[in-house]
Every structure is written in C-alpha cells, then in structure tokens.
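Technical note accompanying the year-one report. For the benefit of new consortium partners, we illustrate the data format agreed upon in the data management plan: each record pairs a sequence with a structure-token string. No post-processing was applied to the example shown here.
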Amino acid sequence: MGHPALLALLGAAAAVLCLTVLDTLKGYQVLDWLRTPEAHAPELQGLWGEVAHRVQRVVRQRDQLIAEERRRLDQFLSGIQASPNGVILLDDTEHITWISTVAADHFGLDPTRDLYQRVTNLIRQPTFVQYLQAGDYREPVKCLMPRGAQGYLSLQVCRYGEGLKLILSQDITERERSDTMRRDFVANVSHEIRTPLTVLTGFIETLGSLPLTEVERARVITLMAQQAERMRTLVADLLTLAQIEGSPRPTSDRWIKVDALMQRLENDGLGLSRGRHPMSFAIEDDGPLVEISGVESEWLSAMGNLVSNAVRYTPDGGHIGVHWTTLPEGGGEFSVRDSGIGIEPEHIPRLTERFYRVDGSRSRETGGTGLGLSIVKHVVQRHGGELRVTSEPGKGSTFTLTVPAVRVRLAQAVIQPA
C-alpha cells in the first residue's frame, strides 16, 4: 500500500510543479509585455489572463489620455502659431525650449536648430539683454528688429512655473510709422500756420506803429489778405482730408455725368490759368454718355487738384491736357498731362504724403498747401481706384486716376426705353 501512496504523492507534486512552472511562464509573458507595452497583450487564460486584460485596459486608457493631451497641446500650439504675435519659451536657465514661427521671423531664428540655445546668445541687442537681466517686466520694451530689418518690435517677458519665462514679441513697425507721421503732421501744420501768422503779426505792428501812405497801407492790407487766404486754404484742405478719412466707403447708387465733371474742371482750369497755358479737355470713346458713382464733391476735389497742380507747376506757354477714357473692360481713366518742370524719380513714391513738397518754396509761392495729392490719394482709394504718376524731369508729368468698372456705367437717360 505504501508504493501507490508514494506514487500518488509524487504525481501530485509533479502536477503542482508543472502548474507552478506554467504559471511562472505566464507571469514572465505578462512581465515581458509590460516591459514593451507597444507589443500585443499575451492571450492567456486564468488569473494571469485576467491580470493581462485589466492591465491592457489601464494601458489603453492611459494611451487615450496621452493622445488627448497631445491633441490639446497641438491645438494650443497651433493657436499660438496662428497669433500675429511671436512667442519664445525659456527654461530656468534662459535656454530656448520652444519658438513660434512668428517669433522666428521676428528674430531671424530657426525653430529647430536654435532650440536649447541661450537666448542672449541669439538675440544680442543691448536693450533686450538689459531688459531680460534687470528682471522688471511690468512694461514691454521697444527694440529694433535684428539682423538689419527695418522695423520695430515690442518685447515683454512673463514669468510662469518654476523659474520659467515666456517672451512675447509684437511687430509695431506700422504703429511707429503712424506715430512718426502724426508727429510730422503736427509739426508741419504748426509750421504752415506759424509762418503766415508771423507775417500777419508783423504787418499789424507796422500798421499800428508807422505812419503809412494810402498806397503803402493798401499794399500791406493786400499782403495780409494773401496770408489770411493761405491759412484759410490750409484749414479747408485739412478739414477736407479729415472728412474723407473719417467717412465710410461711398455707395454706388449716386451717379455723376462725366461730361458735366469735365465741363466744371475746364471752367476752373481756364480761370486759374488765365490764358497762360494752352489747355485741352477731351472725352474719348463713350465719355459723354458715361457716369461714375460716388461723392461728387470728392471727385471734383481729386480731379481739380490734379488740374490746379498742372497749372501751378507748368511754366507759361506749357501745354496741359486733361482726358477721360472709357476702358474696354468697363472702367475709366482720368488723366492730366503737362509739359511742366517734371519730377525726379526719387520723389514720386512720397508725393502723396501730407505736406511733402518737391520744391517747398515754389509750392508756397504758387499757393499750394502740400495736402492736395494726399486728398487725391484718399479720394481715389475710398472709391476703389488707383493713382498713377509718371514723370520726366524737364519734360513734364502725367497723373492718372483709374475708376473701377463697378463705378462706371452708361448714362441712364441714354439706356432707358422710350
């Protein structure tokens, strides 16, 4: 009886050992899978199968959370990339950990190559370096764009996390240019008004302190009237410019006949010239039947400025030609061509700036305020057109206003049924 019992005991021990070995092998399979979680989970039965299943579910949930966080991070970074402002992230040692595309453009950096570089090794402008090192970031600092670019940046550093920093960069070139233009405008207006006021003050003192003959008194009063008219014209042009800039874009439901405009321009031009220039006014193609839309007073102001400029800057005897042409595609062109003194090429891009004068003394002598072409530019832009200038020194200039097709049509009186 002893041998069968021993055999049974040995069999049971062998079975337990086999189960233990198999169980251990399953455990190693699970352990190997946990070491390389990207591999497929082992297909096991029993306890280890349940463990593997539960671990796989936890891993899958973790992967989903990681994917969701990555998606949110990508969305956040995409939002920063879409911003017109630049962003640079720094670690606690002021090394770059991330650069937006806009910031890379602002500073001439490479978003990949320049990662983990110390920011002051790449952006070396003294103004920025001092600002970063000073530690007072309550206000932004203005810097020139690096690497020879013509522009300005506004930079502000923000602290976050454990010693981390964020640099915000904004291109303020246009704002600086506008501020400069505003300062120049105020200075120019002050100068333009101060000069005639000084003359008037001197004449008033002369009238009050010196015994003048009637002829001398009349001459002084005439000169005073000229200076007063100069200021009146300047104020009128300033008001016109302010009104044009502050008004909405004109609608296309108010139409003006081109031939009526040309007739008024001809009357004004001949009156201003007083026979000193041979002048021609021509309407080509369907001009007499054409209407343009917009604000009549603005079109008259823009076109009239071009005609008066031609009269002012063309020597006596020089020819002035004023033309309207209806274009094949439906738009129109109004041009003023003169045989005057012409304009050097370097001056042409700046002609429409307020108070810009090629020859300041001549402009004042002829009664110009320096605002005429600025008014012309704003009127044309408001009506969707364009101003073009071609000129050759000593031979004359041509100023052309283009009117878009949506603002040109045949006169209604012609196309209406009988």
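Partners are asked to follow this layout when depositing records. The chain has a mean pLDDT of 82.
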